[in-house]
Amino acid sequence: MAVWCAAKNVLSTIMHSFFILALISVQWVLWGYSLAFGPDIGGLIGGLDWVGLNGVGIEPNADYAATIPHQAFMIFQMTFAVITPALISGAFAERKRFKAFVIFTLLWATLVYAPVAHWVWGVGGWIRTLGALDFAGGTVVHITSGVSALVCALVLGKRIGYGQEPMQPHNVTMTVLGTALLWFGWFGFNAGSALGSGGLAVSAFVATNTAAAMAALTWMTASWIRHKQPSVLGAACGAVAGLVGITPAAGFVTPMSAIVIGFLAGGGCFIAVELFVRGRVDDALDVFGVHGVGGIIGALATGIFATKSVNEFGNDGLLYGNPGLVVTQIIAVVAVAAYAAIVTFVLLKAIDAAGGHPRFAGRRGPRSGLEPARRGRLPVLVYVSIVGCARGSEDVARSSTVSTLL
Amino acid sequence: MFITALILFVAVIASWIVLPGGVEASQLEAPSKGVFEQPV
User: Fold this and answer.
1) With an 8 Å Cβ cutoff, is A396 touching chain B?
2) How many CB pairs under 8 A join A and B?
């Protein structure tokens, strides 16, 4: 994600992602895991029985993962909890002050991520009870973060110079490397969600790689048609879109369906980003266009392509004689998106009002850099955490310069 | 589903033959200044 920002804000953006890793790692073991996966209360939230990992030990929990230590399941879920708010930070890259960011992240993880995770994955969660399928986080991770990112971008407003000044990623090479890291790491998310090394993990692995590859080809093709030349950034964007799109479906669909899902995700996200989002909303790293839209496409595609022949604990979708699953997926998508949007908006307004003065970077954003004196010198090598997508690959192709450093 | 997937794949790849422009490295994104060229 950091590599997509103007050079003068690279360190700030890196710091956001790195800090989230630390912040949510501790939040998760203190109360986050209990709220998300603890004993159910009304189908809406987990109880506080497991705060401080009380009762979460080495013995497996039969409800979630009967063959691995309970703490292994907990720490695996923590990686999802860390990644999700980190995705949101891409939407307000170069515009948000650190203090507001810290408060927002902590509250968002507690009030949005934990409840939604409980709804979809928790025993007794109402969306899980409804029968909606989400193998590795299409709704829990990508729709929540994508929609919340859109709200953040709208509330925070556009950066100075947006639409007038070119705002290219500061290092394209590192961007592609970062995408490769993402692609590889995603196998841990999707195949790992099988919670065991067996047939289901392999199936999810194959589906994930296949969808990502097809989406990369699709986006690059779409970008080539629109911008008259192929783009490595387009391929990178497409790969991420495909990874997002297959996430809810990975453990429920066949490899052939994964190709179709990759095509839909790559093409759909490209259309969303190029035709609807850019120019209208300054979502700095296309978080909504890729993660939000990709998550929605993937969740709906799950309702179409899911089959019990891949996962007997799943369900059959539209193509296998069960159109009801599509309806269930739609309900899940709408509920999660609406909840994330509303709570995110309330949080932003509350945080802004609580201090009595603006806490966001606001209009200081990209021209002066965020608190440059405190950031020190920019690093030569950039730590790549999460990759967003290009602002406009054609802009990078035409430009021979990048933003100057402080 | 195999036929659908195959058609999509072939269509995407085949379109590259008719689209203008090439895929030589020099025609991909203009490289940004490398890290060793950027002032520190």
Assistant:
1) yes
2) 90
Distance between CA A120 and CA A75 in Å, rounded? 18
Summary count for chain A: helices (H), strands (E): 17, 2
| Mutation for A interface: B18, B29, B33, B38, most A CBs within 10 A | B29
Residue B28 is classified by DSSP as S
**CA distances, A403 to each of A7, A231, A282, A395, A399 (Å):** 6, 20, 18, 13, 11
Q: Is B35 on the interface with A (CB under 8 A)?
A: yes
- Please judge whether A214 and B32 are an interchain contact, meaning their C-beta atoms are less than 8 angstroms apart: no
Has residue A188 got a pLDDT over 60?
yes
Report ipTM (2 d.p.).
0.71
Read off the pLDDT of residues B1-40 as tens digits, 9 standing for 90 and up: 889 999 999 999 899 888 887 655 544 454 444 444 444 4
Burial class of residue A264 (count of CB atoms within 10 Å of its CB; 0-12, 13-18, 19+): buried
User: Other CB atoms closer than 10 Å to residue A22's CB: what's the count?
Assistant: 10
In whole angstroms, what is the distance from residue A237 CA to residue A62 CA? 38
Q: At residue A249, does pLDDT exceed 80? A: yes
Instruction: Determine the straight-line distance between the first and last CA of chain A, rounded to whole angstroms.
Output: 19
How far apart are the C-alpha atoms of B26 and A247, rounded to whole Å?
A: 34
Give the residue among A50, A48, A66, A39 at the shortest CA–CA distance from A122: A39
Q: Give the number of other Cβ atoms within 10 Å of residue A338's Cβ.
A: 11
Q: Per the CB < 8 Å rule, is A173 touching B31? A: yes
DSSP, res A246: H
pLDDT category at A163 given cuts 50, 70, 90 is low
* Integer Cα distance of B11 and B21 in angstroms: 18
| A360 bridge partner residues | A96
Write down the pLDDT at residue A265: 98
Rounded to an integer, what distance in angstroms lies between the CA atom of residue A258 and that of residue A264? 10
Statement: the pTM of the whole predicted model exceeds 0.90: no
